[in-house]
Design a protein that fits this description.
There is one protein chain. With 338 residues, the chain is of the alpha/beta class. The chain has 15 helices and twelve strands. It is globular and about 65 Å long. The strands form three sheets. A four-stranded parallel β-sheet has the order 2-1-3-4, with helices on both faces. It has a four-stranded parallel β-sheet with strand order 6-5-7-8. A four-stranded parallel β-sheet has the order 10-9-11-12, covered by helices on one side. The two termini are 38 Å apart. Bound molecules: 1,3-dihydroxyacetonephosphate and iron/sulfur cluster.
Length: 338
């Protein structure tokens, strides 16, 4: 074992740890109350030390909480950025702080690396909305149509499809197929959003994100009434009446880039709560209105679980070899599109 996996004690907050983690706290003090820091800091110090010892990197999705996102992550980003980072990292171990399909994607692209997810139950309502058997039935029903699958799916579903996409490249992927009609799985709202931007006919599925489907257009109109200058940014997993109220629609990374380009003013990010906290750290002149819809799956990942994951090398993500090979083809086709 490359590091001491037998040490399981809970780290404590010492003056040495307070000193070591002070620069991190200075950065995130506006989004984490001072009383909470003694519970996070010892874990942050222990995780950062253990990562070096065992040649591991922590990759965190934009929805992870600020103590993870700013405290222990080596790479942060949207689904596409994390998939790309998984290909380019030279570390032996990847700890994926996100949901299961993200860790599975990292493993498919890196079969020789150890990919860990700190909680195996970190799922996704979109990924669980469709099975490989459903895709086979769609192929029988619509023969010859190319199939695009959102990365928010299982490896088995990816293996049945022609190409993957994420929310940042969905339109580009659909149009790259040069087909008048495309099956787009499983997010009905993302499919509808893509359909509104292209002449390609889209056949969709009825999957929804349990976080984004809760936002309403009415809620956004109320923000505009109280703050006529507000910039509304929405994730394309939101329902159509929400998207039609938005000034900008894009992936989590696209939204972050857009807020940074605005730089000052009032903004509402219509997406998971932690995004605003994470971006607020880098955009002190933006006043965020924070409707809070939590993703319960993303929130399963915590600092104590990340430390335990590294200490015990669990939970290791495994994908059956022939499924992985087929799914890799769909992912690599997407990545090659650039
Ligand atoms: P992004 O690829 O935009 O980060 O979206 C992932 C996701 O799960 C959004 O709910
Ligand atoms: Fe899945 Fe929605 Fe959570 Fe993203 S926010 S991981 S799409 S349930």
């Amino acid at each position: 074992m490359p590091f001491n996996s037998t040490t399981q004690e809970v780290p404590s907050f010492t003056t040495e740890i307070a000193e070591l983690t002070r620069p991190i706290y200075q950065k995130i003090r506006d989004v984490i109350p001072e009383e909470e820091w003694p519970t996070h800091a010892p874990y942050i110090a222990a995780i950062n030390a253990l990562k070096l010892e065992c040649d591991a990197v922590v990759m965190a999705h934009n929805y992870q909480t600020p103590e993870i996102f700013h405290g222990v992550a080596d790479f942060t980003g949207d689904s596409l950025a994390l998939a790309r980072q998984a290909v380019s990292t030279s570390a032996a171990i990847i700890v994926l702080c996100g949901v299961h399909f993200m860790a599975e994607t990292a493993k498919i692209l890196n079969p020789e690396k150890t990919v860990l997810i700190p909680d195996l139950d970190a799922g996704c309502s979109l990924a669980s909305s469709i099975t490989a058997a459903d895709v086979r039935l769609l192929k029988e029903r619509y023969p010859g149509r190319p199939i695009v699958t959102y990365v928010n799916t299982s490896a088995a579903v990816k293996a049945e499809c022609d190409i993957c996409c994420t929310s940042s490249n969905a339109l580009k992927v659909v149009e790259s197929l040069k087909s008048p009609e495309v099956i787009f799985l499983p997010d009905e709202y993302l499919a509808g959003y893509v359909a509104s931007q292209t002449d390609v006919k889209i056949i969709s599925w009825h999957g929804h994100c349990e976080v984004h489907e809760r936002f309403t257009g009415q809620e956004l109109r109320a923000y505009r009434e109280t703050s006529p200058d507000i910039s509304i940014l929405a994730h394309p997993e939101c329902p159509p009446d929400v998207l039609s109220e938005a000034d900008y629609v894009g992936s989590t990374a696209g939204m972050i880039k857009h807020v940074k380009s605005i730089g000052v003013g009032r903004v509402v990010m219509v997406t998971e709560c932690s995004m605003s906290d994470n971006v607020a750290v880098e955009c002190p002149d933006v006043d965020f209105v924070r409707p809070c819809n939590l993703c319960p799956h993303m929130k399963r990942i915590t600092l104590p679980k990340i430390l335990s994951s590294l200490r015990n090398l669990e939970y290791q993500v495994q994908v059956e070899a022939s499924t992985a090979a087929q799914a890799r083809r769909s992912l690599e086709r997407m990545i090659q599109l650039g």
